[in-house]
Amino acid sequence: MQLHLKYLLEPDSASRLAADVVATASDISGADLDYSPGSIGLLEEIVDDFRSDGATGGEMAESLVAFGCYVGEILIRHVGGAWRHCPAETQTVPLAVELLDGRRCRPVDWVFDRLEHGSAVSIRSLYDAADRGTPGAARTTAVPEC
Predict the structure, then answer these.
(1) pLDDT 10s digits, 105-136
(2) Residue 100: DSSP 8-state
(3) In the prediction, which pLDDT does 7 show?
(4) CA 138 to centroid of chain Cα atoms
(5) Which residue in 20, 33, 54, 90 has the most C-beta neighbors within 10 A?
(6) How far apart are CA 88 and CA 110, in angstroms?
């Protein structure tokens, strides 16, 4: 997948991508993405709107990556962790959030999966499982671990 992002897709730039999508969502639709776990529902609605409009992951890749970075920032701020680089062959992008207990979550993949599979993929449930420290919460069959 060829991405045309404002910043290189690296751990140090993920927070900037998230901040940019927060500003863009506010400008375009008045969405209040405030980095709270509760705002994940709003993000899911935005992605569901893309899906109902027939958008594909390829068409929306830059936005989906940025929204995934936003979810990653929620994880980091509320659960604890840091962005890490991972080999790209097993996921959409080579970024993961490594939680304090060592589990790795791939919130960018969660967002792409939500677009592809709709409500069958609950970003909020994945976040909640990571927050509870549920074994396996950092991955599903569609979101492999590094």
Answers:
(1) 999 999 999 999 999 999 999 999 999 876 55
(2) T
(3) 67
(4) 12
(5) 33
(6) 15
